Amino acid sequence: MKRYEQVAKGLAGQIEQGVYLPGERLPGVRRLSKQFSVSISTIMQAHQLLEDRGLIRARPRSGYYVRTSVWQVPEQPAMTSPKPRPTRITGQQMAMQLSQATRQPEMIQLGAAIPHHSFLPTQAINRALLTVTRHQQRRSASYEFPPGSAELRQQIARRMLDAGCQIAPSKIIITSGCQEALTLCLRAVAKTGDIIALESPTFYGLLQVVEALGLKALEIPTHPQHGISLDALKLAIEQWPVKACAIVGNFNSPMGYCMSEDNKQTLIKLLDQHDIPLIEDDVYGDLAFDHHRPKAAKSFDTNGNVLYCSSFSKTLSPGLRVGWMVPGKYQEQIEYLKYITSLATPTLPQLAIADFLQRSGYDRYLRQVRGQYARQVARITRAVSQHFPEGTRVTQPVGGFVIWVELPEGTDAMIIFHQALAKGISIAPGPIFSASQKYTNFIRINCAQPWDERLEAAIIFLGKLAQARLA
Fold this sequence. Notes:
By secondary structure, the chain is an alpha/beta fold. The protein has three domains: 3-66, Winged helix-like DNA-binding domain superfamily/Winged helix DNA-binding domain (Arc Repressor Mutant, subunit A, Orthogonal Bundle), CATH 1.10.10; 87-119 and 364-470, Alpha-Beta Complex (Aspartate Aminotransferase, domain 1); 122-362, Type I PLP-dependent aspartate aminotransferase-like (Major domain) (Aspartate Aminotransferase, domain 2), CATH 3.40.640.10.
């Protein structure tokens, strides 16, 4: 835990114990810095965190005051209970509407999980692109056939040590984003009609691939804090001929949970016993709010049975379309599938990202953006709790930048989706996160948007739509 987080926790405890009452002014920053033996900047960071959590508020030229009505963090949704049988996926066309909405610059983008450009190191990436263009003209115009740029694979291998994975650069394949990596994985391990076990709810992009390949989805109950139910998965494997399992174990979208290391290890053992490959999507793994990068499930893989996928789309630039995978024992097959599918990932973005990583800009950027996302998630959660109907439940993610909102029974997420879209607000309706189109009263909100009057007004408007549907 960072020092400012410790200070914030201490102040929050004093407020809870009644040391500072609602409406009272907190001591000045200099006095607090002496009390906690920290710098003034640390106190200011703690103030920002407490303000985002709704415990205090700033008054211009006066200081910070305890809020008179401290908001209560909403309850989380319960463990999910999808149908315990394989399902052919339909109705994923709605996801295309989310993608199309991102092309409209005036749209308030709360639907697709794409960070606003202000959260991305755009200038640094542009400098890296210029550097590569200037110094590697001939190479940047050539193909980087699979497995991809040696420089980038070396940098990724170093990064994966933080996820607990000792991977040789030769075992990494560069892809055109994580979506291509997931597609190649499923093509390698399954054929038409095969059953794939998935978290429920799960990333709709994965469902689209499962649908396109003619596979069947077996949705497994999932907890908003602990992840996929290992007991339910074990029963499903005993009952059905599961061909592969796919998860987003670190800061899952849409729920935001992070599986414990024990559960990841147990999952790997369970799948190894049945010789079932695991497809791991770790695209959010670097975005831990507590700055502690969790281990990947791949770190417990001793048999090459885990096909690990990730990308820089959520951290550096979605537009560069650079992802990667570590396919384990499927390496040769995946390299061939990559070659016949897209020949090669564009060279210039690969070299630019390698240059950026080599200059150590990535860690500095992550330290900054993790705190920004934590504050945005807290701020939007607070706004939802204030403006949505009573009984609304919201997940409490520990990383990433999305929240999963359960509206009271009787609301229809699809109707709210269309009404909001007509007013220039994009959200992700719950049914697209399910093979059987469950979660009709759920929505996912992308919090990686700068907080301003337009965003606040959008949350208030969504709350009114939910109230109206409930009425």
